[in-house]
Amino acid sequence: MSRELPKGLKETMQKQGYHFVGRHSAIKTCEYTANGLRGKTLCYKYTFYGIRSWQCMQSTTAIGCDLACRFCWRLIPEEEGYKWNELNATDSWDDPAYIVEGLIEEHRKLISGFKAFADTELKRRRLEESYNPKHVALSLTGEPLFYPRMSDLLREFHKRGISTFLVHNGSLPEALERLTEMPTQLYISLQAPDKETYEKVVRPKIANSWDRFIRALEVFSKLKTRRVLRMTLVKGLNMHNPEGYAKLIRIADPDYVEVKGFSFVGGARNPKRELTYESMPTHEEIRDFAEQIARYSSYIYTAEHRPSRVVLLSRDKEAADNRIIDFSKIGKDL
Fold this sequence. Notes:
alpha/beta; TIM Barrel; 10-stranded mixed sheet; globular
């Protein structure tokens, strides 16, 4: 049977700016998409990879998640009284083409509200371009890889000339193994340098989560696409043991590592998370920690984006020199 999202949860998320497509997919305008349309600071993905923020869609194909990361700015359904494993409990998943067309349609509805800000030639041009999205980040909330037809979904995006940035939490190595179409760029979130810290940070809802995470890193290392480990560092929680992070980086062998500072916003402000404004590291602290990881892992300090408090490390000089997406190769090995 198919399962709709609980009405109360859906209404709460809609108030937060989510637009839904079908039974289990959603989209929301990213802060940096809005900034791009207002002519303000662009996303670190623009600095690192050339992604045009005003043409990017922030979305997901599944609302539920099997982790409850303390640093996550998203709404965690359990904190609203819903069980994660019921949100994705369906044997009737929406068609990939339907999802892609629906996300594009909802994206256009969302950005239409920025017409009032299009008061310069730059803003008018960006608004016009934004109606033709070129990138999609499958990272909005939940765990996108619960959607069983991810490869077909990626193909649908690529057929339309849209690059794909798929973010995985590392809990589903078998889903990574099933991928037959690779995203333009594949992420795994690297949340902790060791098992003890991992369990404190991600608060897993499944058994053997650390072992599954290590297995996901091993699978990830063999996939033929651009691969990135994404770190969110929280002072007093997971910002320690750079040697441990370096060991995991060597297992995953990514092209890039994004070392980013936690932001005390959204769901992260929930008192149950036991985090505060002081949990946010400064950009200087992030840069120092990234340099420590670089020394232990032999990765190369490549770039930084101060507004996002994020530093980019590259595996080697070739990776550092080839960060910008070549759109002629969307859907192919990069």
